[in-house]
Write a structure and sequence with these properties.
mainly alpha; 18 helices; 83% helix; globular
C-alpha cells in the first residue's frame, strides 16, 4: 500500500470533482425521470427507449474520451503539450463526425430507429415524439464532453463540475417551465422535456468553449482541432481504436439490453428506467475514482516510473473494493426511498424497481472492482486491446444469450432477466484480478 499522503490527496482532488460532475449529470437524468413520471408510465417508457440512442452516443463519446485520455495522459507525464493538443484535435474530429451521423439517422428515420428498441406502440410513439427534438442535442453533447476530457487529461477537472451544475439548474428549470407550462410558458409535456435537454446542452457547450479558450495548461487553439498531424493520427488509431471499439460495443450491449427490456412491457421498462437512474446517481464515486486512476496511472507510465505504477495498482485495488462495499449498501438503502421519490408511478412498477435495486446492490461490488481495474488501471497503463476482447467474450457469449433465453424462452420474471444482464459484473472479477497483478499491461505508448 502507498504510504504517501500526497498520493491519496491527489487521487481525492481528481476524483471528487469528477464524481461531483457525474452526480450532477445523473441528477439531470433523475430530475428528467421524476418530472416525466408525472406524465404517466407511457411517457417514461418513451423517454427510456429514446435514451437508448443517447446511451449509444454517450458510449461512443466515452470511448473517444478514454482513447484521448490514455494517450494524452502519458504525453502529459512527459510534459509534451504539443502532442496532447494534436491528440485532442484528432478525437474532436471523430466526435463531431459521430454526432453528425447519428443526428442524420434519427432525423431521416425516427420511427425505424426507435423501433429497434421497442415493439410497444405507445412507447414507440412517445419515443419518436421525444427524439425528434433530442436529436439536435447530439452534436453539442459530443463536443462538450470531448473538450472536458481534454481538460481532464491535463489534470484540470473542476470545469466539468461547473458545467454539470449549469446543466442541472438549466435543465430542471426548463423542465418545470416547459413540461407543465409554468409562468406563462406553453405546456408541452414530453416535448417540453426534450426542449429542456436541448437548450441545456447548448448552454453547456457555450461555457465549455469559453473556458477551453482561456485555459493555461493546454493552450488549445481552434486550429489544433482541425489540423491533422499524421504521426499522432496513426498512434490514435492504433491504440485508441480498441478503446473506442470497446466502449462502442458496450454501448451496443446497453442498446441490446434496452431492446430486450423494451419487449417485457411498459411496467418492466419503467421499473428498469427507475432502477438504472437511481443506480447511476448512487455510483458516481466509483466512476470518479476510476477516471482519476486513469489520469494517475497514465501520467506515471508516461513518466517511466514502473515501480511506482505497480505500487499504485496494488493500492487502488483495495480502494476499489472498499468503495464497492459502501456503494452496495447505498444502493440497497435506496430501495426504501424510491416509493417516495416516484410517488406518481404504479404500485407494481415501484415493487419491481425495488427488486431490481436489490440485484444491483450485489453486482455493484463486482462493478467497482473489475470495471475500475480493467479500465482505470490496465487500459490506462497501455493494454488497450485487452478490455475490448474481455468485454466481447462476456457480453456476447454470456450476458446477452442468457438474458434472451431467460426472457423469451423460459419467460422468467423481469428481475431474473435483469440479473442475467448484470452477471458479467461478478464474473469479470477473477479475470481482472489475474490480469492486473501480472503487470504485463505496463507499456509506454508515446513517441519521442
Amino acid at each position: 500500500m502507498v504510504r504517501e499522503k500526497a498520493f491519496y490527496k491527489n487521487l481525492a482532488l481528481l476524483s471528487l470533482p469528477i464524481a461531483a460532475q457525474n452526480i450532477l449529470t445523473f441528477l439531470v437524468g433523475l430530475a428528467d425521470n421524476i418530472m416525466v413520471s408525472r406524465l404517466g408510465e407511457t411517457a417514461v417508457s418513451g423517454v427510456y427507449v429514446a435514451n437508448q440512442l443517447m446511451t449509444l452516443l454517450q458510449m461512443l463519446v466515452t470511448g473517444l474520451s478514454a482513447a484521448l485520455l490514455v494517450l494524452a495522459a502519458q504525453y502529459w507525464g512527459k510534459q509534451d503539450v504539443t502532442a496532447v493538443r494534436s491528440i485532442v484535435g484528432i478525437a474532436f474530429r471523430f466526435a463531431l463526425g459521430a454526432g453528425i451521423l447519428l443526428f442524420a439517422a434519427v432525423s431521416l428515420f425516427p420511427q425505424r430507429v426507435i423501433g429497434l428498441f421497442t415493439d410497444d406502440p405507445a412507447a414507440l410513439d412517445a419515443g419518436v415524439q421525444y427524439v425528434r427534438i433530442l436529436a439536435f442535442s447530439f452534436i453539442p453533447f459530443c463536443l462538450t464532453n470531448l473538450l472536458l476530457a481534454a481538460m481532464r487529461s491535463v489534470e484540470t477537472v473542476r470545469i466539468g463540475t461547473a458545467v454539470a451544475l449549469l446543466a442541472l439548474v438549466t435543465n430542471v428549470s426548463l423542465n418545470w417551465l416547459l413540461i407543465f407550462g409554468k409562468l406563462g410558458m406553453p405546456r408541452l409535456g414530453l416535448r417540453g422535456a426534450a426542449w429542456a435537454t436541448l437548450l441545456s446542452r447548448l448552454c453547456e457547450l457555450a461555457v465549455t468553449v469559453v473556458f477551453t479558450a482561456r485555459e493555461k495548461k493546454l493552450r488549445l487553439r481552434f486550429s489544433d482541432l482541425f489540423t491533422p498531424r499524421s504521426p499522432y493520427t496513426r498512434d490514435f488509431l492504433r491504440y485508441g481504436l480498441p478503446v473506442i471499439a470497446g466502449d462502442l460495443l458496450w454501448g451496443l450491449n446497453m442498446a441490446t439490453q434496452g431492446g430486450i427490456v423494451g419487449r417485457l412491457g411498459t411496467v418492466s421498462i419503467s421499473a428498469v428506467s427507475i432502477a438504472n437512474t437511481v443506480f447511476s446517481v448512487v455510483t458516481v464515486a466509483l466512476y470518479g475514482t476510476r477516471d482519476a486512476s486513469s489520469i494517475v496511472i497514465g501520467k506515471t507510465v508516461g513518466a517511466g516510473d514502473v515501480p511506482r505504477v505497480k505500487l499504485y495498482a496494488r493500492t487502488l485495488q483495495v480502494v476499489y473494493i472498499g468503495l464497492g462495499l459502501c456503494t452496495g449498501a447505498l444502493v440497497f438503502a435506496s430501495r426504501f426511498v424510491v416509493p417516495f421519490v416516484y410517488s406518481g408511478m404504479g404500485t407494481e412498477t415501484i415493487a419491481l424497481a425495488r427488486q431490481l435495486l436489490s440485484v444491483l446492490s450485489v453486482t455493484v461490488v463486482g462493478t467497482a472492482y473489475q470495471m475500475s481495474v480493467l479500465t482505470g488501471v490496465v487500459r490506462a497503463g497501455g493494454a488497450t486491446r485487452f478490455v475490448l476482447c474481455n468485454d466481447m467474450i462476456f457480453v456476447w457469449l454470456v450476458v446477452i444469450p442468457s438474458a434472451m433465453l431467460a426472457a423469451f424462452v423460459f419467460h422468467a420474471p423481469t428481475w431474473i432477466v435483469f440479473a442475467c444482464l448484470k452477471c458479467d459484473q461478478i464474473l469479470k472479477c477473477a479475470v481482472a484480478a489475474v490480469k492486473v497483478n501480472r503487470f504485463r499491461w505496463i507499456r509506454s505508448l508515446t513517441k519521442e
